[in-house]
Amino acid sequence: MTEELFREDAGLFSCTATVLAQHAAGLVLDRTVFYPQGGGQAGDAGTLLAAGGAQLVIGDTRKHPDEPGLIVHVPAAGEDAAAFGPGTVVQASVDVPRRQAHRRFHTATHLLCALLPFAVDGCSITASYARLDFHTSEPLDKAALNAGLARLVAEAHPVRHRWISEQELDANPQLVRSMSVQPPRGLGRVRVMEIEGVDLQPCGGTHVANTAEVGGVWVTKIEKKSAMTRRVVLGFTQTLAGSV
Ligand SMILES: [Zn+2]
Questions:
Q1: Which pLDDT score, from 0 to 100, does residue 244 have?
Q2: Are 88 and 56 in contact (CB under 8 A)?
């Protein structure tokens, strides 16, 4: 198993870790701050620094294709992982601006869920944009959504996660907002993200700690993808220090 430090603290950007194995696609560590692509959110990038001084640039992070619970750190194109064999102790550090963009956009997508009472049937969160597909035929009002987002950011609601049992989730099916991304099962517990007084839903992603940290995010586009799908695209209105 790779210990998933990012699940408990999305603001932790670096940790020490030990290389467990080299997989064809990349390196497996015993613990990591790198979020693997999933739940609509892109994987982290960053660097691994070996005690001897060798550095490896990581371009992406994925779940191990065959072994659940292992996280693969994928070297960027042209990188040589030869010095990072099993047992190598590394300082693993995420690309902070990319992580911060993911955190801000991910929390913003949950704010959108609170503003629009429709099921979600698609989601993509990257460092430069986020989009959510809502299952509805109703036209959406861009100006009203932007006013709603700005209000929820200004209200500075705390954002936190907690773990609930699968039985508790089954007893509250309304918690599951997304039609395409179901929470992972079989672990006995499910992580839920709460935006205090605003939104609660199962989610494994990395979020800001308060809606105020979402900052300048707005709806750049609303598209009619199909008769029953309205796509909402988010962008940054401002680049905060250390972001994008
Ligand atoms: Zn989420």
A1: 43
A2: no
